[in-house]
């Protein structure tokens, strides 16, 4: 009990201070010029630093789930095995701490490399019947932990490579003839060797702790989000699970990260953010969903329902544009400048829908409709129009345009402005439908109480990359609701019209 009472209080030191019983500055200074026999602290220690060093030794929590494919009944084995493993290891670790505190002197405990006893292990000296029991056990334990990591990590790396989420890892998706991830194993060995060559595990341990904590934090966050968003494919079977436990786990992970080292925590988070944005930028196809998309879907649903709570105020009016596009026989937009014009109005920050109508029967023309939609989407991307593309297949073109005017949009994001191309050559055309379709569309837009923009001479309008100079002349129409004043203002927010 004497040793236990001595060891119950901390004995943290700064780097270079000498180990002594007292904590006064005089006790931790060298006793003389010849300090050969004095033992000093090689690193600065504190409670949070020691957490970062110790944490990698308890990171085998997900070892079972990493090898779930090899389990006969993973649903039953993983929870039972993981909980039993945590209880067992926690009991062993905590009992070891208490036993060391009760049997070993305070000064010897802080002698990190055992210099005072000839560089030997303390636990080996007190082992029964011989010190080789501990030495062999430590060797086998270290070897087992290393082999466990070399078994799980390559398979995890191979799974990531097979998902294709990080394209440059694709060579490591290959398996050997026996189904072993040989390439991933070689890469894992190289990474491990780099850590060994550092010569001091204490330098690497805090950074490893950050990545483990961030991994566990993201797992907890994903579980909590899936539960709160009520995702249909998320069906946890563990009866003691609750989303609040996941949030508690996430909070603890973040707290321990910043307690251990705030700058290493920021570095790890920055690296994770860079990897995430890289995956998002490359647009890799993946067979799994993500909680962020579910969160965005719930936020969009909530916002749409909020927009339906009352009629919009006049001051909140902004153009929600529906572009009615005429397609050529090659399914390309006939008037591409309509897209440029809509892009130049994007200062209104409203919704943009580009729609077109194809004559025929949908069961026979669905492939043509999909190709036309892809063509519209590609044109929108090239002209930097952020919005949606829609194709409607109907037997009557006029009826189809009427349906688009009536039903395009959703809730509070229904279009209130229609952009329509001018019917060139209608005087010379022998087909009366050229101007009849246009007139019927104008009547439908008017009946829907929507604003109508018909840019005549659209082919002479500037591209989004051009810069025009001069004036915008407004031909005032009484009782137009101020639309003719708003449109020039929105156009002048774009760089093409900014110098007017």
From TrEMBL:
Residues 338-454, 468-499 form the SLC12A transporter C-terminal domain. InterPro entries: AA-permease/SLC12A_dom (IPR004841), SLC12_C (IPR018491), SLC12A_fam (IPR004842). Pfam families: AA_permease, SLC12. The keyword Transport does not apply. Residues 36-322 form the Amino acid permease/ SLC12A domain. The chain crosses the membrane at residues 39-65, 77-101, 132-150, 207-229, 250-276. GO terms for molecular function: potassium:chloride symporter activity. Keywords: Membrane, Transmembrane, Transmembrane helix. One of its GO terms (cellular component) is synapse. It is found in: Membrane. One of its GO terms (biological process) is potassium ion import across plasma membrane. Gene3D superfamilies: Amino acid/polyamine transporter I (1.20.1740.10). PANTHER family: KAZACHOC, ISOFORM G, SOLUTE CARRIER FAMILY 12, CATION COTRANSPORTERS. This is Solute carrier family 12 member 6.
């Amino acid at each position: 009990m004497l040793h236990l009472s001595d060891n119950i209080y901390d004995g943290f030191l700064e780097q270079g201070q000498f180990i002594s019983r007292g904590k006064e500055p005089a006790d931790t200074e060298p006793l003389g010029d010849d300090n050969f026999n004095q033992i000093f602290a090689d690193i600065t220690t504190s409670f949070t630093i020691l957490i970062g060093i110790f944490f990698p030794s308890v990171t085998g929590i997900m070892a079972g789930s990493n090898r779930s494919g090899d389990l006969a009944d993973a649903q039953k084995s993983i929870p039972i095995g993981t909980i039993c493993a945590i209880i067992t290891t926690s009991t062993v670790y905590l009992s070891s701490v208490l036993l060391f505190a009760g049997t070993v002197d305070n000064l010897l405990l802080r002698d990190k490399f055992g210099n005072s006893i000839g560089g030997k292990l303390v636990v080996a000296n007190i082992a029964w019947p011989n010190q080789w029991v501990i030495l062999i056990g430590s060797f086998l334990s270290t070897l087992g932990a290393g082999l466990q990591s070399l078994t799980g990590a390559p398979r995890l790396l191979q799974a990531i490579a097979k998902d294709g989420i990080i394209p440059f890892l694709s060579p490591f998706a290959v398996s050997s003839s026996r189904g072993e991830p040989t390439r991933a194993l070689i890469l894992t060995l190289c990474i491990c060797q780099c850590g060994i060559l550092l010569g001091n595990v204490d330098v690497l341990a805090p950074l490893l702790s950050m990545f483990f904590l961030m991994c566990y934090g993201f797992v907890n966050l994903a579980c909590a989000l899936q539960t709160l968003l009520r995702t249909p494919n998320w069906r946890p079977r563990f009866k003691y699970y609750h989303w609040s436990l996941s949030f508690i786990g996430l909070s603890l992970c973040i707290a321990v990260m910043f307690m251990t080292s705030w700058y290493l925590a920021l570095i790890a988070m920055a690296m994770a953010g860079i990897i995430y944005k890289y995956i998002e930028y490359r647009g890799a196809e993946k067979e799994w969903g993500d909680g962020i998309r579910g969160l965005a879907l719930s936020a969009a649903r909530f916002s749409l329902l909020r927009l339906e709570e009352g009629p919009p105020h006049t001051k909140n009016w902004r153009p929600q544009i529906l572009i009615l596009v005429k397609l050529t026989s090659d399914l390309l937009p006939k008037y591409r400048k309509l897209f440029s014009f809509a892009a130049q109005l994007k200062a209104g920050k409203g919704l943009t829908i580009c729609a077109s109508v194809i004559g025929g029967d949908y069961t026979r023309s669905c492939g043509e409709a999909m190709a036309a939609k892809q063509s519209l989407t590609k044109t929108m991307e090239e002209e930097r129009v952020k919005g949606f593309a829609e194709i409607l297949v109907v037997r009557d073109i006029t009826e189809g345009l009427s349906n688009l005017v009536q039903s395009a949009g959703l809730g509070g994001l229904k279009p209130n402005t229609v952009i329509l191309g001018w019917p060139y050559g209608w005087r010379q055309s022998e087909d009366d439908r050229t101007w009849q379709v246009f007139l019927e569309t104008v009547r439908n837009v008017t009946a829907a109480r929507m604003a109508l923009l018909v840019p005549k001479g659209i082919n002479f309008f500037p591209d989004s990359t051009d810069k025009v100079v001069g004036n915008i002349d407004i031909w005032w129409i009484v009782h137009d609701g101020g639309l003719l004043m708003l449109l020039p203002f929105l156009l002048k927010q774009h760089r093409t019209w900014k110098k007017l």
